[in-house]
Amino acid sequence: MSQQTNKQESTEMLNGNGRIPTHALVIGSSIAGLTAAKALASHLDRVTIIDRDESACAETFRRGVPQARHAHTLMPQGQEVLEQHFPGIMAELVSSGAVSVDVEKEVAFFHDGAWRTPQPKDRPPSLSCSRPLLENAIYRRVTALPNVALLRGYRATGLVTDNSARWVTGVQLRSGRGAAGQEWVEPAHLVVDASGRQSQAPDWLAALKLMPPEEWRINAFVGYATRIYQQPAHLAEAWKRLYVRPTPPDETRGGILLPEENGRWVVTLVGIAGDYPPTDEAGFLAFARSLPTPRFYEAIKDATPLTEPFGFRRTENRVRLYDKLPRYLEGFLVTGDAVFALNPVYAQGMTAALIGSHVLDKSLKRFADKLAVGEVTGLAAAFQKELRQALDGLWTMSTHKDWHWPMTEVTDNAETLTPGGR
Ligand SMILES: Cc1cc2nc3c(=O)[nH]c(=O)nc-3n(C[C@H](O)[C@H](O)[C@H](O)COP(=O)(O)OP(=O)(O)OC[C@H]3O[C@@H](n4cnc5c(N)ncnc54)[C@H](O)[C@@H]3O)c2cc1C
Q1: Closest residue (by CA) to atom 15 of ligand 1?
Q2: In this structure, what are the phi and psi dihedrals at residue 266, rounded to the nearest 5 degrees?
Q3: Which domains, and CATH codes, for the chain?
C-alpha cells in the first residue's frame, strides 16, 4: 500500500489558503454513504462520494445494491431521522407515489399461529415505496449540495496514509476493468467507508499492518425470493401490507407484501434455517402456498407478475468491532452495513445507516474546533464508540430471535453481546 503523503505535507495541504480546505471522501453512494456525505458537507469544505457502480442512481435497480430488489421497510425511527436530515422528504416521497400505511389498521401481521396488531400503538403512518424511489430522493438532495461531488465507476482498493501509517491521506482508486483500468490516489483528510456488507476495510487496515476489527456473526441462514406484481384493480381487503413472520424453532417460512408506487406490490418470500424460497415460477408459488396462513397465497395467485423472482441469501448478522480497535487510523471512519450488517427480516439496516449519519454529524460538531485547525486525531475512535452505543439496541433486536433457530451459527464470542444468550 502506498504511503504518499507525510503528516507535514498533509498539514500544509490543509492550511494552504488560510481557510481549512478539508476534503472528505466517502466510499459508497447508497443510504449510508449519501447520508454520511450530507453530514460531512455541513462541516467540511468539500465532499467526494465514489461508487464502483457505473450506472447513475436512477429509478431502476443498480448492480452495487442487489438487495434493493427485495422488500424494504423503513422503520419509524428511520423515518424520523430521515426527515431530520432532509426536511420535507416524506411529503416528497408521497407526492412521488409512496403509499402511506396506517400501521394499526392497514397492516395484516401473522406470527406464531395468529393474526396480531403491530405494537406499539399510535405510530405515525409508515411510508411504503420501492428502495430505488427512496434512495433517489436522498440522492437528489445530496448531489444538489454545492460542495458534494459524486464519481461513478471508481472502486476503492485501499487506503493511503502518511509515512507513520497514523493518518489517512487518501484512497487508492481504480476505474475501468482489466488492462484498460486506471489506478490513482484521491487525497482526502477524512475517509468514510460506507461500502456495505462487502466492505474490504479490514483487509485494507491489515495491509497497513494495523489490527483489523474483531468480527461477530450470527447466521440464521435466511433466504429471500422477490417478485414485483401489478396490484389487482379490486382488492376486497382492508390491509395494504401483509406480513407472515416465521416462528422459531419449527416454522421456517414467511412472506412480506408491500405496496409501492405505480400500483405495484413487492412480494418477498422468506425462508429461515436454510429453507430457502425457490426462484422459479412454480416453486415460488408453491412456497407461497405453504405459508402458515392461506391469505398470502390467495392475495398473489391472481395478481399479474411484472418480473421474474430474484433470490438473495447474504443475510447474516455481522458486527465489526471498530469501537474496540487498539490503534486507529486517524481520519478513517466506517459506517452502515460495513459495521452493522443486520438480518433483513427485522428491517433495521436503513435505520442503522441513518442513525450512523446522525452520530457522525454529532461527532463532527464536537470536533469542530479541532477540524478548524486541520486536526482529526481522536475523531475515528470517538465516532466508532458512539456508533456502537447508538446501534447496540438494533443489534439485539435483529439477533435475539435468530438464536432460537436450531441451525443458527454463532461465532464463539458473540454471545456476550446478547444479554441472556440463547
Ligand atoms: C434482502 C435484504 C432486504 C433488506 N430489507 C431491509 C428493510 O426492509 N429495511 C431496512 O431498513 N433495511 C433492509 N435491508 C438492509 C439495507 O439494504 C441496508 O442496510 C442499507 O442499504 C444500508 O446499507 P449501506 O449503505 O451501508 O450499504 P449498501 O446499500 O450495500 O451500499 C454499498 C454501496 O457501496 C458501493 N461499493 C461497495 N464496494 C465499493 C468499493 N470498493 N468502492 C466503491 N464503491 C463500493 C456499492 O456499489 C453500493 O453502492 C435489507 C437488506 C437485504 C440484504
Answers
A1: 349
A2: -105, 120
A3: 7-68+137-218+315-417 (3.50.50.60), 99-129+221-312 (3.30.9.40)
